[in-house]
Structure formats: C-alpha cells, structure tokens
Specification:
It is a single chain. With 154 residues, the chain is mostly helical. The protein contains eight helices and two strands, in the order H-H-E-E-H-H-H-H-H-H. It has a two-stranded antiparallel sheet. Helix 6 runs antiparallel to helix 8. 30% of the residues are buried.
C-alpha cells in the first residue's frame, strides 16, 4: 500500500514538471474562453484577388510553442480519439470532466490534437481557446496533480 502511494507521488511529480510551464497561460486562457484569438490580415498591398490569412494572438502562439516542446504531446492522439469515441467538443468536455489520473493519457491526447493538429489546420488553435478545451484540460491536469501532491505555487 505504501509503495502504491509512493509510486503515485513520483508519478505526479513527473506530471507536475510537464504541466508547470503551461500553467502560467491558464489565466489568459480562462479570460479568452469563448472569444476569438485571431484576426484576418487585411493590410495594405492585398488586392481583391489576394487571400487573407489569420494572425494569431502572440500569447496563444507562445502557449502552442511551449506545449509542442513538452513531453505532454502524444503523436498518436488520433488513436485515443477513436478508441474513446471522441467526436465532438461536448464528448471532449465530458471526458475531461470525468478524468482521473488513470485517464491522463486521454487528457494528453486531447491537448495534442489541438496543439499538433493546429500545425496542419491552424484554426484548431483558436477553436481550442473558444471552446475552452485548453483551459479545461490544464485545469483538470492541475486538479489531478494537486489531489496527489501539494497545491501548485504558480
């Protein structure tokens, strides 16, 4: 029994190291939830035949850059989605709400879908902010770690 508790403390210490750099973005993500974090560039020199392109908030881009470098990223997130039948934002929110330490990989998969998938389909980044996915995943990860370890000092 004591070995199990010791194992959980070690596991949560590792998870804490992965999540800690991303938690500084949590207040910003909570503030921007439901809002658009991108604009279309309509600068000078664009003719009527030119295509406008999105410009993303710099804080969002810093979050994505830091998250993509972390060991939280799981390149097999598509498998997690198919295995757990996650199809809509509501499915993701339900999974996040009920997650425990046993579903840590699912939380990583949801985060990875939006961070890594956004490299190909950039609208996923702003979608994750608008739909509160980034915010909910980080909050749940923090909650799980604090259950097994001490509260964060951010």
């Amino acid at each position: 029994m004591e070995q199990d508790i010791e194992y959980m403390h070690r596991l949560m210490a590792e998870n804490k190291q992965m999540v800690m750099p991303l938690l500084r973005y949590l207040p910003w993500l909570e503030q921007k939830a439901g809002q658009s974090v991108s604009t279309n560039y309509q600068g000078e020199g664009l003719s009527e035949h030119s295509m406008a392109f999105p410009v993303y908030d710099s804080t969002l881009m810093n979050f994505v850059k830091e998250a993509s470098k972390s060991s939280l990223m799981d390149r097999n997130y598509l498998y997690i989605y198919s295995r757990n039948r996650l199809k809509t934002h509501e499915d993701e929110r339900k999974m996040i709400a009920t997650a425990t330490w046993k579903e840590w990989d699912i939380l990583r998969g949801i985060l990875s879908k939006y961070v890594l998938g956004g490299r190909v389909k950039a609208v996923l980044w702003s979608e994750a902010v608008t739909e509160r996915i980034f915010c909910l995943v980080l909050r749940k990860m923090k909650e799980i770690i604090e259950y097994w370890d001490q509260p964060f000092q951010v």
